[in-house]
Amino acid sequence: MGLLGMTMPKILQARAWEESRKVAPKAKNVIFLFQFGGPSHVDMFDMKPDAPSEYRSPHGQRRTSCPDIEINERLPELARLMDEVTVIRSVHHKMKNHNSAAYYALSGHAPATDDQRLRDTIDLYPAYGSVVDHLAPSRDTALPTFVSYPHHIGDGSRTPGQFASFLGKRHDPLFIPRDPNKEDFKIPELSLPEGLTLDRLQSRRGLQQIIDQQAHLLDHAAEAQGLDDYYTKALSMLHSPKVRKAFDLSQESSALRDRYGRTTYGQGCLLARRLVEHGVKFSTVYFSRSIGGRSKTDGGWDTHGFDNTRMFPIIEDYHLPITDQTLPTLLTDLKMRGLLDETLVIWMGEFGRTPKINKNASRDHWPQCYSVLLAGGGVKRGYIYGASDKLGEHPTEDPVTPEDLAATIYQLIGIDPNAMIIDTQDRPLPISSGKPIWDVIA
Amino acid sequence: MVRLFTALSVLLGLACTRADTVSFRHDVMAVFSKAGCNNGGCHGNAHGRGSLKLSLRGESPDIDFKALIHSNSSRLLIPDAAEESLLLRKPTLQRRHEGGERFKVGPLEYIPLQQWIASGLPKDAPDAPKLIELRADPEEHVLIGSDNSVHLKVNAHFSDGSKRDVSRWAVYEPSDLIVDIREDGYVTATQPGETTITVRYLHLQRPVRIAYIRSRPNFAWAAPTPANVIDEAVYAKLRRLRMNPSERINDTHFIRRVTRDLTGLLPTQEEAQSFLADTHPRKRDLLVESLLERPAFADFWALKWSDLLRNEEKALDKKGVKVFHSWIRSAFAENKPLDQFARELVTGIGSSYENPPSNYYRALRNPTLRAEATAQLFLGTRLQCARCHRHPYERWSQDDYYQFAAAFDGIGYKIIENKRKDGLDKNSFNGEQLIQVGLERKLKDPRSSKAPKIAFLPIPGMAKQEGEDLAALGNWLTAKDNPLFARVQVNRIWFQLFGKGIVDPVDDFRSPNPPINPALLDALGEEFVRGEFDLRHLIRFIMRSETYQAAAVPNNTNANDSRNCSHAFVQRHDAETLLDSIHQVLGTEAEFTGIDHPLRASQLPGVESVHRNRKPKKDEHFLKVFGRPVRQLNSDLERSNATSLAQVFEMTSGRTLQTLLADSENRLGKFLDDNDSDKELIENLYWTALTRAPRAIEQETMLAHLVAATDRRRALEDISWALINSKEFMLRN
Fold first, then answer.
1. What pLDDT, on the 0 to 100 scale, is given for residue A46?
2. B385 touches chain A (CB under 8 A)
3. What is d(CA A67, CA A59) in angstroms, rounded to the nearest whole number?
4. Mean per-residue pLDDT for B500-515?
5. Which residues constitute the domain of residue B78?
6. Which residues lie below 8 Å from residue A359, measured CB to CB, with a gap of 6+?
7. Which in A431, B251, B287, B640 has the greatest CB count within 10 A?
């Protein structure tokens, strides 16, 4: 007598937790901008101009629209918008490897071991977006609740925390492994292969329905009905102008597309805004596929200075300009459309970078203290939370864990941070084991 | 006042040992459980809640006692003004409480807590009577129609011989939400079905099974003739529940079902039609017999066990995956008894290339992983919870956990070669290893930091085992008097043939999750032991039963049944079965990375490790979307047969099926050329895909589609698409 295939204890527990208190949401949508590789906090949002030279950033600071914060001089556009954001300067944890730290950042849960090649198994926690899809899906069913793109991230093996894990495949994101900066950008699922038209598909569906009427499976088997509902939904998505439009970047003016930046990341952020407008609740944009850090044309923030590369020329020419072009454009665009108040934007990596400059004139991994930027969706404007010591090595005020960030995100989007989900062992597990940072909530 | 309440308390079953003392262990702890304070979502959480942390479901009264007495909050317990204590004010909502109101000010929960606080937080005397047994009455009950309620009586028996009615203090947790349960144990059924109510009081629990059925005054038992003890057990239960089993499936349906269940393939048109024409009275038995001898049977069952044994390339490497798969496959080809199979795995040491079963431990790199996997695979026991706390629904303690894990300690690896591409990946191995035993034991019980002594799990009813080495472990695990081993294996086989276990989830044997039909499980277990753990024998035995041969279509008495096998359970086929069937219909071959000869999906030896840069071929992409497991857990549940929107997109707008349909080399061209008439063509295609002739309306519709088409080839692709996407094709039924 299973309901939607849940096993009974799950229904029981699900019901019990539905009754747990409701949380008033501040944000309707989330845009999660994940900066894989680990951006340097001490060269962006937590600079230490008075630190000794072996620590100090070669870049200067500039004043911003928020009197309490100065940021890297190479982020002039972002500087104008600092009165819109909250910067948390005291995030810390213990995971020194990309996969384990990124899983932590993407799920809010620490892995059991700090494993460089942490394996993606269904006993690990799901992505934030999958939890949202499970506990508070979008009302409008034409569009998915959770969309992610333009690639999986991985460091040697696929980073866990990007999919639904034990919540089940139906809570996976609609994942788009395509570059939104390409002219022919399309959603694979919504684009028909050669030789197939919507009419032809509709006629196939008609034939299928004749066959299905014979076996009477649809009359009595919930599994058959559920499968048939997916056919109805898939066809309606394929037919729907709204769904097509949500992903159609050609609807945007060329000027606006230029402002976001004609890069994978720039157009990805523009797509995120379109998705918010069309009712997608959680969009995850990965800045890069890999940890990168050795190139001025692609890759993430992992600037160790390996292979005789150097961190600062790379971020000066690549990471900082892209960030300064795209992030402020996104925030401004959301604001102008009246969407910023209801859209939580999260900008974060898996850790910061060593405050002390290494022998390659670069910086290594530093999870002990780093910065996260939040904007919109009910967080304070022009606010600094937490502080680090004079070198940026450790939090000195209000330390924050990834668990607390998770609780804050759930709280903001109206999900009880203590809500439970059931893993493959039928164990009830809290979606977050941290505490919301009440002080960053407006 | 106090005296009045005390008198009341005695009446209500409170375990006050003296008229004026409240027992912490018996009264206060019972309140914490009854009011839900120590649930996992509340103060029983690993981090507690607010400033109060209690042990999960009251597993550790001593720790809770200390935690309360030494609380940081001076206002939690105020003996001089007990009513002011937060422990009383919060749950009664006299102060804000995140958990809401747990109880009211009054004689039941409130007074024992208040008395305990007011009397100075006394500790129980060391010689205070201990709870030794819990009994619930009735333990099994069928409710019918308007007779929809029963009052459970729960009695606690103490070490001093005393007995108390604790119905009001026990916690009642139903597995299925078909009943309302009042706090005093009065159960009212709300909808037909079955449920197991776990009745818990302090550290003990009892399962109570309740079934509620419609009165069905006109119900007449159809008195079908049982083919064997399987049917006897199933029918006995069905009759009690006033349900008749569904009809027996016809011959074509039978050959389709058994061929897919045993080999993951479709019967060919010729096979099906000649089976239909066969007049042998035992032709169904003979068909099963012949399928069991096919190589595809060994392929298909090796696939199931390769999932369970983590046969994947990252840990075992390409060669290892092949040798392990071929060892597993030959075990099924040669019909190796499953007890021997299990013993060879748990005693498998030496070269991972020369002695394939040693790959079992090659994939399990530490003692706790080995213990957890072995318990889950062979004993249907999930030990993971007991790593950190007493299993909340089960008997296993942390001692049991670490002592069992100790049996797998001292196993190590001599890495002869490791050519892994990614030197940083500690989970990746490429090259031969020697699995060694008798090495230094490193496992420590984290609570004591000492090495635990070796002990196998204390399974009730089992003789004590001599010896501690792996051979002794294997003998203990597979002993005929091990009540779990045979039952877990037959339950898994039943699950693989029916889509649901008699115990379900299939690897979760524990008292709150009892078998839906204990007599059935016992009968199968006995048959399996009698047959010396012979898989084929058990499959034959099951397939001969009327129960296995029941249709999926329900009758007017059994539509609500999903567990008692009154009709077949409808579920999506495995990824490999679907893909292989599609290729079979279209006469195409799957392509897999690194494999240059024809191979069906169900014959793939391993799974490639998930890698970011790999471009999967279309067939591999299909398998992933349809839930082929990555084999990183030793669990039947890692494979997913759930349906999803992504799967339907894969079938409609995805490239796999469309590419195969449009492939000019596929069988559709031949279908067009070889058939004399359109009618014949459609008939043959139906037999190929659905193992049946088209009905009149289907014949008519498909013909019209073909005739109206300007491009007959494209029209045939459409019809094939519709057949492959039909529920009959995609779902086991």
1. 97
2. yes
3. 20
4. 90
5. 2-118
6. A305
7. A431
